[in-house]
Amino acid sequence: MNNIPTVAIVGRQNVGKSTLLNRLTGKRQAITEDLPGTTRDRLHVPMNYAGRDFVLVDTGGMVRGEDGDFITHAVNDQVRLAMKEASLILFLTEAKTGLTPQDEEVADEVRRSGKPVIMVVNKVDNTRLTHHAAEFHALGLGEPMPISAYHGRGAEDLLDLVVEMLPPEEKAPNEPDRLQIAIAGRANVGKSSLLNAFIGEERAIVSAVPGTTRDAIDTPIDFEAGGVVLIDTAGIRRRGKIERGIEEYSVIRSLHAIDRADVVLIVLDAGEPATAQDTHIAGYARDKCRGLILVINKSDLLKEVDMANFDRNMASRFKFIPYARRLYVSALTGEGLEGVIPAAFEVQQERKRRIPTPELNSLIRHALARHSPPSAHGRVLKVLYATQVGVCPPEIVFFVNDPALVHFSFERFLENRLRETYGFAGTPIKLTFKGRGEK
């Protein structure tokens, strides 16, 4: 990713930056609402247009913040950082309101960045509004380009100009696949703090206000253990407490982040008992067969607590995923953080573990010699043979005389025997039972 140019969309609030990103990418990547300040964190979307790879970056709207307005200052800092990292800036304004003092303030920031810029005038929804774009000549940032992000007018011409203005293409060495790690959990448990602690910069806005992160944010980064993509997500609340609109889309995007992850870090707050929502998130990741690590953040709050008892309570609360590792960390002090990424790689190796068929069937024979198979109505379950058919997660198919005879307790028995011998720490195992001759 380091060799791929980035294109940052910047501008004041409510000029249509997220709508433009969605239009250019052809997907609903960013949350759009007709409300100022909907976008806060930077949202990076890899793109390919006319044979050129680049990353399109959506940013929050810059605004002059009042003293003490933490979120406003944090958003402005995020925009400045996006411009610093960008190869090209799309400075977005809009025709209906016309040139405003806020546009002039953002233009000053753009000039100070020293980066190439395309002056874009949005919301030119008809030819009558085209002449409104001319007044933006006054900013001295080049020829204003009229578009309508909502209707798609001028979008292809803008992409053509973007590709034309990108720096010369650099040939990057082939890069191995990166481990996709989603950082998920309830609102305000410290997910963004963990992300920032991992990468050593203010990549995501951190605030004690629940719901500060709204989009799922991808951050490629190299660790000693290997290359990863860290996916920070919005906090997931109970379904009944999800507000319609912005938060509703944020929850959907968080669940999608889990869907595309290899390993999910379920972040918990050491200062609060685990909740039903914590187990719901972990259950969703389990059902999607993702690697799982329980990361108990704010461990600095546990100095006076009986850790053995606390850990037993955690094991009891998450007894439906006994294979998940539990790591105690503090994003504030850095305690325990060095073990999280290596643990994620270890879980991924377990997800890739493959058992040779002769070994697997030998294990099953010895297990059945210790534990009689279930029976019903005079019929006894017979396991004919087993074979592993997949990895990530490990998937094992058992061919039996009658799948209806398989009881969940017997399935759990087989899983326990597999884990005793082969580990599979941190990953679900899919067990499928098929009748004789089934494919």
Describe, in short, the structure shown.
InterPro entries: G_ENGA, GTP-bd, GTPase_Der, KH_dom-like, KH_dom-like_a/b, P-loop_NTPase, Small_GTP-bd. With 439 residues, this protein is of the alpha/beta class. The chain has helices at residues 17-25, 70-85, 101-113, 155-165, 191-199, 246-259, 276-287, 307-317, 340-351, 357-370, 408-422, and strands spanning 6-10, 43-49, 52-58, 88-94, 117-122, 145-146, 179-185, 217-223, 226-232, 263-269, 291-297, 325-328, 375-376, 379-380, 383-390, 395-400, 430-435.
Structure description:
Helices cover 31% and strands 22% of the residues. It has 439 residues and is an alpha/beta fold. It has three domains: 6-165, Rossmann fold (3-Layer(aba) Sandwich); 179-351, 3-Layer(aba) Sandwich (Rossmann fold); 357-435, GMP Synthetase, Chain A, domain 3 (2-Layer Sandwich). A six-stranded mixed sheet has the order 2-3-1-4-5-6, sandwiched between helices. A six-stranded mixed sheet has the order 8-9-7-10-11-12, with helices on both faces. The chain has a three-stranded mixed sheet with strand order 15-16-17. The longest helix is centred in the N-terminal third of the chain and has 16 residues, at 70-85. It is elongated. Residues 29-42, 202-216 and 234-252 have low confidence and may be disordered. Associates with the 50S ribosomal subunit.
